[in-house]
Inverse folding.
């Protein structure tokens, strides 16, 4: 419909009128009148109405006279008046404002006279009557005035507004609110602002609007509204007037039960009036009740309760865990609301739901859960992130706090388990990473490489604006929001860092609050502790995820300065009794510890934080929260000292520590252990600096400044008395019964050894001579150290500590285990160092530097400790634990292994212990340790592989042929540049100087992470990708590392003499097989811990060696021995052995490296290979490449068998193993399909030469599942495999000879199935009939005769079945044969034999 605004009534009537001469002017026949008639007909059927209504503002009508024209004010008919046009008479007058009388409709040039009724309903006119008239409509009420009027009159119609606004819905500003406001204004006006009950005119208008819509339009509108609202909201809207409807129902029922109207008309009228009054009163009371509730709401908690009550449910916090999904979905829809209170309510509910879910999943400090992203709203991360971009953060602190806490919970939920943490200072559950620093007292916390933690395929490069712009600038399309949300669920830390630009956003928020605090100078004007904890949690995860992010956070010009000002500035005695707010300060200190571990550059940028720990630790702690804060302040200082940073603070902290160290060990809040552990690092730094002359040379002058050099020079004198005190306390026998006492004694012993190591001359400990520039006073003598060792050995170390370290005492906490391992490592390392330098000690005794008898005391301690340790090793059991627990256990176990490897020859010479009984125990312990070593422990691995006795066989004490194993492993550890850099980094992490003796130790350490940031030198060849860089590092190698060596590649390229290289390769492989047989025959527990399927898989990999290796007679003999051993173990393990075989094959392939085997892929593979229903189906959601990992290995074995035929026995036995009944059906059927024409070669020459067929019968036993199933209750063969087996037997050439391994194998399986199914299973009988339908006469006779013999002899096991099959197939008379292909007769005979036996 065209716009008619500005047209007069006359022009509009002319435009719409139908001229009688329209036909003469060329109009189509019928014209508008015909269209009017059609529209009226459609309107009567209810199928058509105009699609739109035109609202126009008409000019005031002008009545012309002979004298002058006068503008007449009139009231234009409202839509309801126009709709009631049919009820108006022609002479009925409309009231004219300002006139005493009316104007007839006929005389007024109105639209009602000139247009048809249907068009009149489609055109409405705005009133232009001046509001000054007595009948004028009131002016539109403002939102503020309407809200005040509603509160005053206590009549808020409709209750709470709808919260069901979907995330991502964009509406024009004020559009929805404007319509709602107008409706409320009209309702208030029509009812005097009182009851809020709809007036008849409103109902009439609504009915007319519905009447103007077709059924299809009504249905579409209803569907649209239902699609926008949730089920709960629709239910609430439909039932919010139940009480009023109940009142109406009562009124209706009373009127229906009333007598005839003609009799009691007055009574009916009175009853009707009473019912209406009751209904009206009920509605008023309901509105007053809601208004009263709204007027009493003061806090958000009261608002939550009122909302929950109005929705007919419980409070958010009272919901069951399974209802959280729907609640989270409903709450997340409020985050994009235009109402500030709705956003706060939504953010609060989302925050509480996520925190509740996180607390439930991480109960008791366990963070190894796996949370599916499908349980969360798709766009929730994006909606939460958008809230943080508030233009005035200081005005929305509460909303930002809820949003940031929710983001923090989601980051923890979806981050890698090693990156999850809890920064609540009052938590009772600590992660292993925290225990590693607090109790093991080392700071090189084991970390997981990001490439192994997250799917790198989803990683996007960090944008340059990620650190430069704080606003989350993204396009308004739905695709970008969905993409960011999907990336967040996959890798939350990287998405916040690169896509959502969280670092500048937080910097803006903190800078804003810091600015306000500086202006007001009020300690109470700060952000909440929960806000700081959430932000620091997110930043900690970002730092663990990316070391570059840690540097960016630390070096940001505004981020950390504002954070330190807000959280670490000392208070002025306000609400905090302590010098700082412990909750907020702890979050900042913990974040600083995490960032400092990531790189030296990040730690260097945070050196200013150390200024705050002086006044924090100066105050005595009076609560657990204050004590934990002080602990982590000292841990932060110790972390900085690992880089040689923060040395200048020693002069401030040492005087503060003296009274703390003098306190009794029973003091609840003692910091003595933390102070002593930091002083240990200072001694190590002094030792390195002393070895390099104080770094005063021109090349190293920048390593230490003058202030730090002076601090190290004076530290020896400052710490001398403390070292003497620690030695005296240990000799006096301080108690170590409790965890705190053991931790303090461990710290004292470690500090004593560190000071002695830094101050002892080179002829005692083999160190470089002490420099004159940095001199430690040698106040600790060697005699005192020996006395301390003797005291510890007689005390707790040979008892409870040793048992805890070797897991013999399992009723201890993780904290006690960490303390014991640190204590034990120091003891073993010190005792081994003294044993190695005994010769120099003797020389020093002759020079009078040490007393006589010291070497004998050392020997006595060594032999005593070795005896106790070996006895405990015999009870050692390998256990699985986290990386951090493995790290401190590995360091303790490695120190023990190195100690025993050095002293074992002298120990065996001095005692009656047998070499054959002691050496395998030590080897098993060490081999298991090598399998547990992780990235960052390359130094430990190199030290172990340098011990020759560890790789010596008992029968070959000359160790002439075992150097190959050490050579192979050492080449892998330090051959390529990246491996060398990693080894140097590992040595520095363990406190060493580095790869060379001239290394600078702590002062050259670039990070405390497990893996070094290796940057290869630029080269012309740029085809080395990140995968090759990662594969260059050998650790972790896994518990099956010894067998993995069998799958090594023999490469003769680069050698001048290829023949010599191949000969050396053959010798290496043979020596390795001999050593593996030695491991098995010695009964090492290490070998029993590895699954036999894994061993068999890597043994079969030797079939891929060059032919020169395979045809070697020694290799074939050793292979057969190992094969027999592993096959027996595999058969005992059953289906578990087959699964371990598949897992080893799956993980050893290239396809496994592209995804994680711990998740759904692994489960799908196992289900696919070991589920009979899915053995021939690829509907498991796995791609072709996933299955190809296993299929490729089977195909390679079959190809090798085809190429070499039966020339080499390893191939024959490899194929046979793949046909064992424990293997998956998919593997067996694939083997039969690949070697269909060579099945006759599966019989070995020895079996052919054996006329008695005893060897063949013994081999067949392993391939039958048992005898008749109804006799021995054995498992039947899979139906799908029997189908393939029968088909292959019929097509093979073996059936013509009626002999050979495969023929006996197939006939036995088919005969067993036939005989067993003839008694119990009709479907099995039908299947066997189908399988033998195409069989020739020989196969039919062999299978039927074998089945009959099994039934006659009551075959109860696989041995009897093998004998029967061989006997029947070798018998040419066939006494038990049945007429050829008469299956019914065969079945009848089998049942007859069974009945006879019964």
């Amino acid at each position: 419909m065209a716009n008619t605004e500005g047209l007069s009534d006359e022009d509009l009537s002319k435009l719409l009128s139908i001229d009688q001469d329209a036909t003469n002017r060329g109009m189509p026949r019928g014209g508008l009148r015909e269209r009017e008639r059609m529209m009226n007909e459609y309107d009567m059927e209810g199928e058509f109405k105009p699609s739109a209504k035109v609202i126009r503002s008409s000019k005031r009508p002008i009545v012309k006279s002979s004298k002058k024209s006068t503008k007449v004010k009139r009231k234009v008919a409202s839509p309801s008046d126009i709709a009631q046009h049919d009820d108006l008479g022609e002479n009925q007058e409309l009231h004219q404002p300002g006139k005493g009388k009316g104007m007839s409709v006929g005389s007024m040039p109105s639209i009602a006279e000139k247009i048809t009724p249907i068009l009149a309903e489609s055109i409405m006119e705005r009133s232009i009557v001046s509001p000054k008239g007595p009948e004028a409509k009131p002016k539109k009420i403002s939102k503020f005035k309407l809200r005040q009027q509603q509160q005053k009159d206590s009549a808020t119609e409709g209750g709470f507004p709808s919260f069901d606004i979907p995330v991502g819905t964009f509406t024009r500003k004020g559009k929805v609110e404007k319509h709602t406001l107008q409706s409320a204004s009209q309702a208030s006006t029509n009812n005097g602002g009182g009851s809020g009950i709809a007036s008849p005119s409103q109902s009439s208008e609504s009915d007319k609007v519905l009447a103007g819509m077709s059924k299809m339009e009504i249905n579409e509108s209803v569907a649209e509204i239902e699609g926008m609202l949730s089920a709960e909201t629709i239910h609430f809207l439909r039932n919010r007037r139940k009480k009023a409807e109940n009142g109406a129902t009562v009124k209706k029922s009373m009127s229906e039960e009333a007598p005839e109207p003609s009799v009691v008309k007055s009574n009916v009228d009175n009853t009707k009036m009473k019912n209406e009054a009751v209904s009206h009163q009920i509605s008023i009371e309901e509105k007053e009740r809601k208004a009263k509730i709204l007027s009493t709401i003061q806090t958000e908690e009261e608002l939550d309760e009122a909302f929950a009550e109005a929705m007919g449910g419980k409070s958010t916090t009272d919901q069951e865990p399974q209802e959280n999904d729907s609640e989270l979905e409903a709450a997340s829809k409020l985050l994009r609301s235009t109402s500030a209170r709705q956003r706060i309510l939504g953010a609060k509910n989302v925050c509480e739901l996520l925190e509740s879910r996180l607390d439930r999943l991480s109960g008791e400090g366990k963070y190894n859960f796996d949370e599916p992203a499908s349980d969360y709203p798709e766009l929730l991360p994006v909606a939460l992130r958008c809230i943080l971009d508030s233009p005035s953060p200081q005005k929305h602190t509460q909303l930002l706090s809820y949003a940031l806490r929710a983001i923090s919970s989601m980051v923890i939920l979806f981050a890698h388990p090693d990156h999850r943490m809890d920064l609540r200072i009052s938590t009772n559950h600590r992660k292993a990473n925290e225990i590693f620093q607090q109790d093991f007292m080392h700071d090189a916390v084991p970390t997981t490489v990001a490439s192994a933690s997250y799917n790198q395929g989803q990683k996007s490069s960090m944008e340059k604006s990620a650190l430069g712009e704080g606003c989350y600038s993204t396009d308004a399309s739905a695709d970008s929001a969905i993409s960011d949300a999907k990336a967040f669920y996959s890798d939350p830390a990287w998405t916040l860092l690169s896509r959502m630009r969280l670092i500048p956003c937080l910097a803006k928020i903190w800078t804003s609050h810091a600015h306000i605090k500086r202006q007001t100078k009020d300690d109470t004007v700060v952000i909440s502790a929960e806000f700081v904890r959430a932000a620091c949690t997110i930043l900690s995860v970002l730092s663990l995820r990316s070391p570059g992010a840690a540097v960016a956070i630390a070096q940001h010009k505004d981020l950390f300065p504002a954070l330190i000002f807000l959280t670490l500035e000392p208070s002025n005695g306000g609400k905090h009794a302590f010098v700082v707010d412990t909750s907020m300060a702890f979050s900042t200190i913990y974040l600083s510890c995490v960032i400092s571990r990531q790189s030296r550059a990040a730690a260097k940028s945070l050196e200013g934080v150390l200024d705050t720990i002086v006044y924090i630790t100066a105050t005595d702690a009076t609560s657990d929260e204050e004590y934990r804060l002080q602990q982590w302040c000292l841990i932060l200082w110790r972390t900085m000292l690992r880089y040689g940073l923060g040395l200048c603070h020693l002069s401030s902290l040492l005087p503060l520590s003296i009274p703390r160290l003098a306190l009794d060990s029973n003091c609840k809040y003692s910091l003595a252990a933390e102070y002593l552990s930091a002083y240990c690092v200072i001694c190590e730094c002094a030792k390195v600096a002393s070895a390099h002359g104080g770094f005063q040379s021109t090349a190293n002058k920048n390593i230490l400044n003058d202030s730090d050099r002076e601090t190290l020079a004076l530290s020896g004198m400052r710490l001398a008395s403390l070292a003497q005190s620690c030695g005296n306390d240990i000799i006096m026998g301080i108690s170590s019964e409790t965890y705190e006492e053991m931790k303090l004694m461990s710290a004292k012993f470690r500090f004593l050894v560190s000071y002695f190591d830094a101050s002892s001359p080179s002829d005692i400990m083999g160190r470089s001579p002490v420099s004159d520039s940095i001199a430690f006073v040698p106040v600790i003598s060697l005699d005192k150290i020996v006395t301390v060792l003797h005291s510890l050995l007689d005390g707790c170390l040979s008892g409870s500590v040793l048992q805890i370290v070797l897991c013999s005492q399992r009723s201890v906490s993780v904290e006690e285990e960490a303390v014991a391992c640190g204590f034990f490592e120091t003891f073993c390392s010190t005792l081994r160092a003294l044993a190695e330098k005994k010769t120099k000690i003797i020389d020093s005794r002759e020079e009078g530097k040490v007393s006589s008898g010291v070497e004998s005391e050392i020997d006595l301690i060594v032999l005593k400790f070795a005896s106790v340790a070996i006895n405990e090793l015999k009870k050692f059991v390998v256990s699985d634990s986290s990386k951090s627990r493995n790290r401190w256990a590995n360091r303790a176990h490695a120190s023990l292994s190195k100690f025993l490897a050095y002293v074992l020859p002298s120990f065996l010479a001095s005692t009656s212990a047998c070499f054959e009984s002691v050496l395998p125990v030590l080897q098993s312990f060490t081999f298991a340790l090598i399998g547990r070593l992780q990235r960052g422990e390359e130094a430990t691995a190199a030290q172990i592989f340098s011990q020759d006795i560890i790789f010596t066989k008992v029968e070959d004490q000359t160790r002439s042929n075992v150097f190959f194993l050490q050579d192979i492993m050492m080449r892998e550890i330090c051959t390529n540049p990246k491996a060398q850099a990693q080894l140097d980094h590992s040595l520095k992490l363990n406190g060493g100087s580095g790869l060379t003796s001239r290394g600078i130790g702590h002062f050259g350490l670039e990070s405390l992470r497990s893996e070094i940031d290796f940057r290869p030198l630029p080269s012309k060849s740029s085809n080395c990708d990140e995968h090759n860089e990662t594969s260059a590092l050998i650790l972790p190698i896994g518990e099956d590392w010894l067998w993995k060596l069998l799958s090594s590649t023999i490469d003769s390229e680069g050698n001048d003499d290829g023949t010599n290289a191949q000969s050396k390769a053959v010798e290496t492989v043979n020596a390795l097989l001999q050593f593996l047989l030695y491991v098995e025959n010695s009964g090492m527990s290490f070998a029993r811990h590895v699954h036999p399927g894994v061993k068999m898989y890597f043994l079969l990999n030797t079939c891929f060696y060059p032919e020169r290796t395979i045809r070697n007679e020694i290799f074939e003999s050793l292979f057969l021995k190992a094969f027999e051993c592993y096959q027996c173990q595999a058969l005992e393990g059953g289906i578990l052995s087959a699964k371990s075989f598949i897992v080893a094959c799956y993980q050893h392939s290239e396809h496994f490296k592209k995804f994680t085997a711990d998740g759904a892929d692994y489960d799908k593979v196992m289900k696919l290979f070991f589920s009979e229903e899915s053995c021939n189906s690829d509907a498991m959601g796995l791609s072709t490449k996933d299955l190809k990992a296993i299929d490729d290995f089977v195909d390679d074995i079959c190809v090798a068998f085809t190429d070499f035929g039966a020339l080499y026995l390893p191939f024959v036995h490899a194929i046979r193993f793949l046909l064992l009944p424990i293997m998956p059906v998919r593997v067996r059927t694939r083997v039969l399909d690949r070697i269909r024409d060579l099945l006759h070669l599966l019989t070995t020459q020895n079996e052919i030469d054996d006329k008695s067929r005893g060897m063949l019968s013994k081999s067949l036993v392993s391939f039958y599942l048992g005898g008749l199933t109804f006799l021995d209750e054995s498992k039947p063969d899979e139906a799908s495999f029997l189908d393939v087996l029968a088909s292959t037997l019929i097509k093979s050439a073996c059936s013509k000879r009626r002999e050979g391994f495969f023929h006996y194998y197939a006939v036995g399986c088919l005969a067993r199935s036939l005989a067993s199914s003839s008694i119990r299973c009709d479907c099995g009988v039908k299947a066997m009939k189908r399988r033998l339908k195409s069989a020739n006469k020989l196969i039919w006779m062999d299978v039927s005769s074998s089945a009959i013999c099994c039934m006659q002899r009551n075959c109860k096991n696989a041995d009897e079945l093998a004998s029967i099959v061989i006997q029947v197939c070798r018998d040419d008379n066939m006494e038990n044969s049945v007429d050829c292909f008469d299956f019914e007769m065969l079945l009848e005979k089998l049942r007859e034999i069974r009945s006879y036996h019964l």
About this structure: The CA atoms of residues 617 and 630 lie 6 Å apart. The first strand starts at residue 54 and ends at 56. The two ends are 97 Å apart (CA to CA). The mean pLDDT is 75.
